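On clarity, I found the account of how folds are encoded harder to follow than it need be. An entry of this sort, consisting of the sequence and the corresponding C-alpha cells, reads as follows:
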Amino acid sequence: MTVAANPPQASASERTALAALARHFPPGQLGRYLLVGAFNAVFGYGTYALFVAILDRMTPHGYIPASIISSVLNITVSYLNYKWFVFKTQGNYLREWARCVAVYSSAIVINVLLLPLCVFVIRRWTNFFAAAPYIAGAVLIGSTTIYSFVGHKRFSFRT
C-alpha cells in the first residue's frame, strides 16, 4: 500500500463553501457557545427538576408549570452567560434580553406542547412512570441547541 505524497486538494468551490461557513463561526465562538450551553443545560435541567419535585406534590401535571417557570429563569441566566462569555456584546441589556426571549419563546411553546406527548410515550412504553417527566425534559433540552445558536447570533446579539 502506498501513500500519496500529495493528498487531493479541495476544489475552489469547496474552499469557497468552507470559507462561507467559517464566517458564521468566528474562532472560538462556537466552542465557547457549546461550553456555556453545557452549563446552561445542566443549570436549566436542574431548575426544571427542582420545580417538578416541588410542583408535582401540589398539582397534577406539575411538570408543565415547572417547565414554564424554569424557562423564564433559565432564559435570563443563559442570556447573561451568552452576552458575557460568547458573543461579548456591550450595553443593550434590555433589548438583547427581549430578543433572547423571542428566540426562546418558540422553543418554549414547542417544549410545552411536546412534553405531555413525551411523558405519555415514556410512561406507556417503559417502566419509568415517576421518572417520565424528568426523562422527557432531558430529551427536549437537546432539541434547541443549533436553533438557539443561530437565533442568538443573527438576532439576539446582532451588532
User: Anything to note?
Assistant: The chain has a mean pLDDT of 85. The longest helix spans residues 93-125. The chain has six helices and no strands.
